[in-house]
Amino acid sequence: MAASTPHVLVIGAGTGGLCLAHGLRRAGISVAVYERYRTRGEGLLGYRVGIGPTGSRALRECLPAELFDTYLATCARSPRYFNVISQRMRQTASFELRPDTDPVDTERSVARMTLRQVLLTGMEDVVHFDKTFTRYEQRDDGTVTAHFADGSTATGDLLVAADGTHSAVRRQYLPHAVTRDAGTINIATRIPLTPHTRGLLPERIRRGISLIFGAGGMMGVLHVMEFKWDRDGAVKPEVSAADAAVLARWPGLAHDNTRDNINLVIWSTARRFPADVMRRRGEELIRLALELTRGWHPNLRELLACGDPDSALPIRVSTSEPVPPWKSSTVTLLGDAIHTMTPGRGVGANTALRDAALLCRQLRLAAAGDKPLVQAVADYETVMVPYGFARVADSLNRSGTNGDDRMYHPLFGRLALLGARGYFTVTSRVPRLRRKFVDDFYTYRGEED
Fold it and tell me: Residue 328 and residue 325: Cα distance in Å, rounded?
């Protein structure tokens, strides 16, 4: 079979789309990415995303070696503990996580904006900003043309939807593939890490990821993000010479305003929130978070009060409905564009990266002439759809991200809360169960195709 190198159009410069673009370019496959935001600094705040072994493995596979080193150097300090606490900051459980000595087999904390800057590095000739996708046309000659709101077009051999939960490509290509409201709402806040806010947290909470099981079905998650640079963007003195050299060479820091901070997110069933919550912003949203956490420990409430108003966001959690298999073509999808999931298992970004690496492998085979392009797409989708929607189901049934969870029931909620706390208490105190919990955590976040 003769080799035929395709030209790939990627709609959306998110985590999965950019990882795919790097992998394709490394393989010598022509690729162009089209992003609706006008500049590389728009669209994302510095909230945490956890990258487990699956995600790090995909990044190592797709990125140039020196850029993978930059990814490692720009991660925040890795969590050392997974904690479960009450709203009064009483420790229910604490599990020690693996150290981050291995470049892949660990849990890493990255800021979304920082990861975007890493993935945009060296892609100036590939990524086209201010391009809002409107529709596509599949042509008789086997090519596909993307149309944009400014009247411009782009034509290639394959169009990849990497444009997120509200994917315009998916609406046209798979109109029966829908997302639905999961029934929960988050209020995300970001608090500057200062001597004052640092002092509000015990060491184990400061050095870990802490899940908050609050009374009355008000949940939370807290993590401290500490980077290798200070408020002025200068490398901190304690950073190793190797990492300092990597950061000194990295141009992305000039575009990234992420600094040391505390992420504190609260959530509950949508019924607990006022009808206009999605329209609230800034100080008004922080005041609402304080109202909803009246019985919480004063230190947690003080953190909320110190939140950066410009960073406060309401998030209505969505989840994808399973989709029956479809006939593969010159259009395909990855990440949230096809399998949006709740944050319950924290694997949305990891699954998008897994998609990107898998699709890249298949397209390399097509470019080498080992299989037709549409067959490569079909083989990708045959694997991606089952694991993607398995992750959707897992995430929906985890940590109260489903608005119908028993924890939110007016009669049985207290019993459900006691049951969840009891599970973590026993698991953390029995050595065999504790080891299994940590092993399962990494196994789940390290699955391969």
Answer: 9
Question: Exposed/middle/buried for 175, CB within 10 Å: 0-12, 13-18, 19+?
Answer: exposed
C-beta atoms surrounding 131 within 10 Å: 23
What stretches of 54-112 adopt beta strand conformation (E)? 81-86, 91-96, 108-111
Could you tell me where the beta strands, DSSP code E, fall in 252-382?
261-269, 313-320, 331-333
* Whether pTM exceeds 0.90: yes
Structure tokens at 301: 């409430």
- Compute the chain's Rg from CA coordinates: 22
d(CA 287, CA 7): 50
User: What pLDDT digit, counting tens, does each position of 385-396 carry?
Assistant: 999 999 999 998
For the beta sheet containing 91-96, the strands, ordered from the edge strand earlier in sequence to the opposite edge, are 91-96, 81-86, 208-213, 219-225, 261-269, 179-192, 313-320
Asked if residue 29 lies in contact with residue 180, where contact means CB atoms within 8 angstroms, the answer is no
Provide CB contacts within 8 A for 311, sequence distance 6+. Answer: 45, 46, 188, 189, 190
State how far the alpha carbon of 24 is from the alpha carbons of 32, 169, 355, 383, 426, in Å: 10, 21, 13, 19, 47
Q: Which residues of 365-389 are buried (b: 16+ CB within 10 A; e: fewer)?
A: ebbeeeeebbebbbbbbeebbebbb
pLDDT (tens digit per residue) in 64-81: 999 999 999 999 999 999
Q: How far apart are CA 257 and CA 311, in angstroms?
A: 12
